[in-house]
């Protein structure tokens, strides 16, 4: 072996060593990255586990349930709507203490998620005839929209908990389809407010409004009020009563207004609440408390009652009316 050969050999072995340590580095890096990814995935699972916390057990009492439901309620983005109360008035007054509208609704943002309970509720608003003397035509599409809305509501923690409460009281089974059917029948069965004309339903009365002989009926949902105001059908005249929950932009409100030029001296509704919270509270109060008696609820700091009345219709007990009342 001459020196040149020796040198070459030692260089090759040097190269080998270099190559080995290079590989080693690569494997190390690979293992570290793998570990980091694993840790990442694990922490995501932990986060998910704690984030999607199990539903609390249903309380025995409607008042306690209402407190829990309000806590469960996902806080509504305060930028989606503005409330402009303006002047206070009296139900017997004829003045207009509110030159501007009550609500400023950012519909584009509110309905950005087309599967949200809010967007699905708003889609139902054009399915009905306002006048109870004009029969509502319920098409297959309307029927589908009702079920889409109810299914989305049933998917929320608020309604799941309410259903557990009703099941515990023996007012509904634990089966999903049975629960869906209960809500569908209670809220969407068409009934007549006179002359046998199928022009009304629990939903239409509570979540929308109706006209009968130059009278405004119902109108107990703030999103419907806001939409009708945007369309120029509602003229807000001032507020009468207010009960704060302690959360910004969420409270109970009573107002005087006119709808299609017809004066209404007093209506009350919750402001800034989700469709699932309202549907839950009205359903639970209607089914679980003695008929026609006020049902006491508490939404954080706001102590209120829900008054509901029964409409007997062909063997079914449907909702003639349901609204918040100030204590
Ligand atoms: C409705 O209220 C307005 C004032 O807000 C009044 O001018 C009008 O006469 C009222 N209409 C009826 C039918 O009472
Ligand atoms: C909404 O729900 C429908 C039916 O479940 C689905 O096909 C659609 O992709 C959803 N849209 C969005 C924006 O999530």
TrEMBL record:
EndoU domain segment(s): 58-327
Cofactor: Mn(2+)
InterPro entries: ENDOU, EndoU-like, EndoU_C
A single GO BP: adult locomotory behavior
CDD domains reported for this sequence: XendoU
TM spans (from-to): 30-47
Family: Belongs to the ENDOU family.
Quaternary structure, from the entry: Monomer.
Protein known as: EndoU domain-containing protein
Record organism: Drosophila mojavensis
Lineage: Eukaryota, Metazoa, Ecdysozoa, Arthropoda, Hexapoda
Gene that encodes the chain: Dmoj\GI22951
């Amino acid at each position: 072996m001459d020196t040149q050969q020796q040198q070459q050999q030692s260089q090759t072995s040097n190269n080998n060593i270099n190559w080995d340590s290079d590989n080693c580095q690569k494997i190390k890096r690979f293992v570290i990255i793998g570990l980091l990814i694993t840790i990442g995935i694990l922490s995501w699972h932990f986060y998910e586990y704690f984030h999607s916390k199990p539903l609390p057990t249903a309380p025995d009492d409607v008042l306690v349930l209402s407190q829990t439901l309000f806590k469960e309620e996902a806080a509504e983005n305060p930028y989606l709507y503005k409330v402009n109360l303006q002047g206070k008035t009296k139900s017997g007054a004829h003045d207009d203490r509110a030159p501007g509208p009550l609500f400023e609704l950012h519909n584009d943002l509110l309905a950005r998620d087309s599967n949200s309970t809010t967007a699905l509720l708003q889609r139902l608003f054009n399915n009905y005839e306002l006048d109870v003397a004009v029969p509502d035509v319920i098409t297959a599409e309307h029927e589908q929209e009702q079920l889409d809305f109810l299914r989305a509501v049933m998917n929320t923690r608020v309604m799941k908990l309410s259903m557990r409460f009703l099941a515990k009281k023996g007012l509904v089974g634990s089966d999903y389809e049975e629960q869906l059917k209960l809500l569908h029948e209670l809220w969407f069965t068409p009934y007549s407010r006179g002359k046998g004309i199928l022009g009304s339903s629990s939903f239409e009365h509570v979540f929308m409004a109706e006209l009968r002989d130059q009278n405004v009926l119902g109108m107990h949902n703030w999103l419907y009020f806001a939409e009708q105001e945007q369309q120029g059908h509602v003229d807000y005249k001032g507020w009468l009563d207010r009960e704060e929950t302690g959360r910004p932009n969420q409270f109970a409100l009573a107002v005087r207004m006119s709808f299609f030029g017809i004066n209404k001296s007093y209506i009350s509704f919750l402001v800034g609440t989700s469709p699932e919270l309202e549907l839950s509270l009205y359903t639970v109060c209607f089914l679980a408390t003695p008929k026609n008696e006020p049902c006491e609820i508490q939404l954080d700091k706001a102590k209120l009652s829900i008054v509901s009345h029964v409409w007997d219709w062909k063997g079914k007990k449907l909702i003639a009316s349901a609204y918040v009342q100030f204590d």
